[in-house]
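Journal club prep — side note

Before the paper discussion, L.F. wants everyone to see what a predicted structure for a comparable chain looks like in token form. Sequence:
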Amino acid sequence: MPLLLALTEPLFGGEWQLTEVDQGNFCSLALDSGGLPSIAYINWNTCTVNWAAWNGSSWNIIPAGTPGAGGGYTSIALAQSGFPCITWYHNTVIPPASALMYAEWNGSSFDVCTISEGGNHGLSNSLVLDSQSNPHVSFSGDSYGTLYYAWRNGSSWMIQTVTTSGTGSKNSIDLSSSNTPGISYSGSGGNLEYAWQSGSWFTATADSTVNSVQGTSMAFSSSGMPRVAYFDYFPGMLKYASWNGFFWCTETVDSSGSAGFGCSLELDENDVPRISYCDGEQQVLKYARKEGGSWMIEAVAPIGSSCSGNTSIALDPSGNPHISYIDYTSNSVMYAYYQDTPVDEPASIPTGRMSLQVYSGIPSAVPPVLLLSLQSAGEVEITVHDISGRLVFGIPQTMYQAGVQTLQIPHLTPGAYLCSVFSDHGVISQRFIVL
């Protein structure tokens, strides 16, 4: 029977938690089924394409491949097994000068292959997995002259040309519920373009009022309608486009000046758009969500925190946003997540062999209390780490009798913490906050 963990609910308010993952650039984020992050990125110090996975207490970092002398632009997706799949642009001075690469974790190492070579293939790329965990990739090639679509058929890669009309940069791919691909991209003339497959490929202009689209991110709604977040470089604003079945509707999300660079879009379970992006003027990471007919915008990191390059957003099972981004001052891959603030009321204990409640201590002068419930006697180990991964409290493996045990945690400073429970039945982790 599985090990279960329940933490304090209901929740109110919340705050952003930030942490440095590693030195690097060109990051991409995905969450596993439990909400734990995996990030792909380039580390130029080691000249490797890395996979960083949070295990509940620290980051495990494993090289997946090499970017060459001037590669980058990673994209990550997790298979149903939880294993990562990563694409990136590889560039060297030795022919082939450039190539789109793909790596897939097999449980002990990465299997790496080349999808397409030559002509800046993969300089802009986007990866998504279908319902059977098969990879589908959109990518630019021929010096942004062509937009391609690739998918793996068994062990072989199949490649189709989507359009050759001088387009393909800043592309983003998603699959509908029927595994039909759609691609947003910057077209010739800087327009926002959209391509879809229906037997063959078709393209249409989604927004011709823009001056120069420098980034797109798309997602399908639950009804199969495409949604696109995009950055209009001149005059510098974040926009959002939605197809209603008859025509494209466009709106401005943030026009505060150079807002929208590196935008990333996710739709929640109610099809509400959530967007992460950089504000170049204020040098800050921002997060936008739509509530009713209005866009709610907040700074994730402090103003002047040097957000640059791409951002990548994902939503955990509770709908909370997680974002990876680049701090260009320190050349760091950063990870931000939104942590709901718990009130001092416990959730009901789920049924199972073992469960745990955390009273988070509100106010912080009141130390947190753990209620451990066991249906039968067994050995259990408990750890509590802060957001930096530092162990702040631990109970070594101890034999407990059946029933409810009250375990006192020493006073903790205000902040976010991760409680982990280990037993013969497995391990499970969950965050909580002390105010």
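L.F.'s comment for the group: Confidence is low (pLDDT under 50) at residues 1-12, 342-352, 361-365. Keep this in mind when we get to the figures.
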